[in-house]
Amino acid sequence: MASKKIAIKLLIALLLKSGRTILYERQTNNSILERYPRFPFLGFGWGVGVVRFANSVCRGATGLTGTCYTKRQCQDIGGSASGSCASNIGVCCVLQLGCGSSSSNNNTYFVNTNYPNPVTGSSRCVYKIEKCNSDICQARIDFISFTLAQPDGDGNCVNDTVTIRGGGSVVPVLCGENSGQHVYVQFYEDQDIQIEVVTSTGAFSRNWNFRVMQIACNCPTIAPSGCLMYHTSVSGLVRSFNYGTTESSSLNSIGATGTRQLVNQNYGVCIAMVPGYCSITWSQSSYNSFTVSNDTEAYLFGSNAGVYGYECQNDFVIIPAPYLNNGTLFYTDRFCGNYLPTIESYSKPFVLTVVNNANETGDVANRGFSLQYSQQLCR
């Protein structure tokens, strides 16, 4: 009898040592956490169970976006646990990576060295976005924070630059203040998308924090072809890159107040059409928020001058098939100068095209544009 009890104890010890198994798997859609075996013949009440939960998007305790993973998964990809998810089974894993990093994980943040502390000297950082899987077609890059040196007085990014290359979309070189902006970049086959940030010498304080979200080819939120910016709300605000309410502190090539509007830009701003809405209106967000060409200083002192059509040769926006407030079809779809009348367009899809070339002759103190859009119900 004693030998039988000793044998049972040895069997229990062996089962306890090898019976509890941690199951860890890298999966694209879900995580498997733990399994506990059952020993009914020994009178133990443990059940066999696999805890499975979706790797869904979550909001971390710090307010940043993460992915719901097991604690082990989060550690393996270099993330930080920021709160819990999946009924406290998983952790909200926030992935924040520095210079020289690559990531194939959704909702990755690429930040400057020692972020949120600023960069005050010359540096070069390269980040690589790798596809999560073969079903991915686009990356949306949100500029959570984007503060670099301003362009020179002619709108050229000569001190600091952000260059995005490797994708199937053309993204202009950017600099200045672009916090809150975003771009959509198409993947080109299986090629990585590369973000390069270069800063020059000088005491100016720069910082950046770019969030990357990967979008599947069949996702309803994928941006249409040709859309560098894509807005999905019924109404909202659209700004040109480096738009600001203050003038440039630099002089342009003719010695006048320079422009903060960036040169060599050609891109589409698209608005997702909401069912039940048939048109869209565009209007200035404030009385002086459209300053894309000519002498803005003269406009601010009373020369309320909008320029249209053929006269818009260098810097302008295009709104297709525009109607004025009185229902009259406007004679052209090109708008420049320092005033934009309220325009309604029934042309679909809803797109505003931005064109800026490198010729800034005669342009003084331009700041770009800030426009309000509003989709209108069918009537």
Description:
- This protein has helices at residues 2-19, 71-76, 296-300, and strands at residues 21-22, 30-32, 34-35, 52-54, 57-59, 65-69, 80-85, 90-97, 102-103, 108-111, 123-129, 136-147, 161-165, 182-186, 193-199, 207-216, 227-231, 235-239, 265-271, 277-284, 290-291, 306-308, 315-318, 322-323, 334-337, 343-345, 350-356, 368-377.
- By secondary structure, the protein is mainly beta.
- The strands form six sheets. Strands 5, 6, 7, 8, 10, 12, 14 and 16 form an eight-stranded mixed beta sheet that branches.
- The model is unreliable at 7-28 and 34-48 (pLDDT under 50).
Estimated helix fraction: under 10%
Largest sheet: 8 strands, mixed
Tell me the number of helical segments per DSSP (H or I, 4 or more residues long).
3
Number of strand elements: 28
The shape, in one word, is globular
- Evaluate the radius of gyration: 27 Å
Portion in strands: 35-45%
Low-confidence stretches are: 7-28, 34-48
Looking at this protein, list some descriptive labels.
3 helices, 28 strands, 8-stranded mixed beta sheet, 379 residues, mainly beta, single chain
Brief rundown of the structure:
The chain is mostly beta strands. Helix content is 8%, strand content 38%.
Write the layout of secondary structure elements.
Layout: H1 2-19, E1 21-22, E2 30-32, E3 34-35, E4 52-54, E5 57-59, E6 65-69, H2 71-76, E7 80-85, E8 90-97, E9 102-103, E10 108-111, E11 123-129, E12 136-147, E13 161-165, E14 182-186, E15 193-199, E16 207-216, E17 227-231, E18 235-239, E19 265-271, E20 277-284, E21 290-291, H3 296-300, E22 306-308, E23 315-318, E24 322-323, E25 334-337, E26 343-345, E27 350-356, E28 368-377
Parallel strand pairs: 8-10, 9-11, 17-19
Antiparallel strand pairs: 1-3, 2-4, 5-6, 6-8, 7-8, 10-16, 11-15, 12-14, 12-16, 13-15, 18-28, 19-27, 20-26, 20-28, 21-28, 22-25, 23-25, 23-27, 24-26
